[in-house]
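Internal ticket - ligand job 335, glutathione:
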Amino acid sequence: MTGLGEGNTEYGRKKFKRSRSHFTDRITVAGEDGWPVEAGRYRLVVSRACPWASRALISRRLLGLESALSLGVVDPIQDDRSWRFTLDPDERDPVLGIRFLHEAYDARETEYPGGVSVPAIVDVPTGVLVTNDYPQITLDLATEWTSLHRPGAPDLYPERLRDEIDEIAEEIFRDVNNGVYRAGFATDQDEYEAAYADVFHRLDRLSDRLAERRYLVGDHITEADIRLFTTLVRFDAVYHGHFKCNRNKLTEDPVLWAYTRDLYQTPGFGDTVDFDHIKQHYYRVHTGINPTGVVPAGPDLSGWTTPHHREELGGTPFAPGATPPGPPPAEETIV
Ligand SMILES: N[C@@H](CCC(=O)N[C@@H](CS)C(=O)NCC(=O)O)C(=O)O
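stdout (C-alpha cells):
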C-alpha cells in the first residue's frame, strides 16, 4: 500500500509547517503492528469541526463501519488541555471513561511532547492511543477493514486507480487541504499571498477537471473525492473569511459548488457535517486571527440541498453492486 506521506510534507520556505503525525501504527488484518482488525475493539475519536477527522467520519459511514468502530465526538472548543469530552454525560467519554483525549495519548507515551490531535483511534480495552495518522486511517478503513464492511460497501481505493488517486490527493493536500491553513496562519504578506495563489490555482484546475466528469477519478466516489470534499464543505463557512481565501466563495464557482453539493447530498457525506461545530471551532479557538472570538452568523446554508444536476455528466456515486449507506445511527444524527 502506498500511503500518501502527507504528514511528512514540509514547507521549507514557508512558516506554517504541519507537523508529522506521531503515532503511525496501523490496524491491519494481520496485525503486524500489534493491532489486528477486530469488531468492537477500537474507538474513533473525532472533532466534527476538523477536516482531517472528517475524512475518517465519511469513510466509516460509506463503508458501514459504525457498529464495528465506535465513535467519540469531542467538544469543538479545545481548552489548554486540548480536546475534551464535554459534550458527553458527566463530561466523560462513555466508552473510554476519560475526560480529555490527552489521557489516551498519555497512556500510549508518557511526556508525549506533540499536539493532541484528531482523528485518533484508541484501543478500548487498554485505553491506549493506537494511531493519529489521518492519511493512513482512511486507506486502512478502505483496504484492511473489508471483512467488517457492510454489504454493498463501495471500494473507495480501487487498486487500478490508486496511482491516479495518490497523485491528485497529493496536489489536493498541498494546495487545498493544507493550502487554506498556510493562508490562514500566515504571519507575513508574502507567505499569505503565495498560499492564496496556490489555493485558487489548484481550485481552478480542479474546477476544469470536474466540469467534464462527475467525480475526480474513475466514474464513482473514491478516497480522492472524500479528501477534496472536507475542505470544500468548510470553504464559505470558515476558509473564505477566517482564513482569508476570499478571491471567491465556493458558491461562486458553479462547477465546484455543484460538485460539493452532489457529495453533500450523498448519504455518508452531508450527514457527517456539523456547520455549527465547524464555525465554533475555527472562530473561537484561533484567537490569534480572531481575537474577539465572535462567530459569524452566516453563511446561509439553504443552498446545500438544492438540485445539482451532476448526474447529467454520467458516473454514479457507487459502482454497480455497491449501494449508499443507510441513515446514521440515531445517536450520531446531527440536529
Ligand atoms: N495530526 C495531524 C493533523 C490533524 C489535525 O491537525 N487535527 C487538528 C484539528 S483540525 C488538531 O487536532 N489539532 C490539535 C493539535 O494538533 O494540537 C497532522 O499530523 O498534521
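Auto-summary: Residues 7, 18-19, 21, 47, 50, 52, 115-118, 132, 134 surround glutathione (CB under 6 Å). Residues 6-148 form a domain with the Glutaredoxin fold (CATH 3.40.30.10).
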